[in-house]
Design a protein that fits this description.
The chain has a single domain (6-252), classed as Rossmann fold, CATH 3.40.50. Helices cover 45% and strands 14% of the residues. It is built from 8 helices and 7 strands. It has helices at 15-26, 59-69, 92-120, 141-162, 181-185, 198-209, 217-229, 241-252, and strands spanning 6-9, 30-35, 49-53, 74-77, 124-128, 167-173, 236-239. Strands 3-2-1-4-5-6-7 form a 7-stranded parallel beta sheet, with helices on both faces. Helix 1 (15-26) crosses helix 7 and helix 2 (59-69) runs parallel beside helix 3. Bound molecules: NADP nicotinamide-adenine-dinucleotide phosphate (NAP). The site of NADP nicotinamide-adenine-dinucleotide phosphate has 30 residues, from helix 1, helix 3 and helix 5.
Length: 255
């Protein structure tokens, strides 16, 4: 690790990524906050902060960002998009769009940083998935699939990178009504509830709108901090009380 360690975070324009950038800055790390549309005004001014453009679906954007970043010690794959609706009504183009960001974007970023981590025999990749991977939830099948793929990917990757002293981990956030997630998912949610699903969907969305517990941006930033700084081989870190409860139930349900 460098004297002052450096973390690169994707999708820091809002929500969990923005708070994670703030969290690492406040704790003395060098932070490379990446955004599709860079903004300098949403994070505290610091000579340890750099804001770089990065779209995780564009290979040339990934290589330009990593060239500009220089050596890093940690990568957080936080960038993600949501989608809700009946699967039968979801165009495959939209499913692919979600996978391009949540799944292939995460994989491409990992592939781009692994060579430097392997060469230095150090480094950590934290992939942000979702509590939807901890228990099945209705009307989010394609989104869940995009995140569940990263759960399996990260578990396997962690084993092959451990050989080189490099870690790969998962942070599984619960539902936060306060990020821009629902707003950003908006265009992918409209018209995805056919009439036959209307009554069922109304009940499901009403349940989603009144959760018994929610996750905050700070819960996720803290979980990423713990994952990055935890030298143990632990793979996954649920973040937020709703996610922690689902993870505990999942463990309890195992034979
Ligand atoms: N909020 C929830 O309830 C919830 C629950 C579980 C998991 N998550 C996951 O947590 C992560 C962060 O979500 P959030 O709640 O903080 O939502 P958010 O406020 O919408 O933040 C998502 C971030 O990802 C960025 N992004 C989207 N597509 C990108 C791309 N192609 N390249 C680079 N950046 C891109 C967005 O940038 P732009 O500003 O450019 O759009 C934004 O900065 C996501 O992976 C999401 O799936 C969220």
């Amino acid at each position: 690790m460098q004297t002052v360690p450096t973390i690169l975070i994707t999708g820091t324009s809002s929500g969990y990524g923005l708070e994670t950038a703030r969290h690492f800055l406040a704790r003395g790390w060098n932070v490379i906050a990446t955004m599709r549309t860079p903004r300098e005004d949403i994070l505290p001014r610091s000579d340890r902060l750099r804001v770089l453009p990065l779209d995780v679906t564009a290979p040339e954007s990934i290589s330009a960002a990593l060239d500009a970043a220089g050596p890093i010690d940690a990568l957080v794959n936080n960038a993600g998009i949501g989608m809700a609706g009946a699967f039968e009504a979801t165009p495959m183009a939209m499913v692919r769009e979600v996978f391009e960001t949540n799944t292939f974007g995460t994989m491409a970023m990992a592939q781009a940083v692994i060579p430097q981590f392997r060469a230095r025999r150090a480094g950590v990749i934290v992939n942000v998935t979702s509590s939807s991977t901890l228990a099945p939830m209705p009307l989010v099948a394609a989104y869940t699939a995009s995140k569940q793929a990263i759960e399996g990917f990260t578990g396997s990757l962690a084993l092959e990178l451990a050989h080189f002293g490099v870690r790969a981990q998962l942070v599984e956030p619960g539902y936060a009504p306060t990020t821009r997630f629902s707003q950003n998912s908006g265009p992918r949610v409209e018209n995805l509830i056919p009439d036959a699903y209307a009554g069922f969907a109304a009940t499901v969305f009403a349940d989603y709108a009144s959760p018994s517990a929610v996750t905050t941006e700070a819960d996720v930033a803290e979980a990423v901090w713990t994952a990055v700084n935890d030298p143990s081989p632990r793979l996954s870190y649920p973040a937020g009380p709703d996610a922690v409860a689902l993870a505990e139930n999942a463990v309890g349900a195992q034979p």
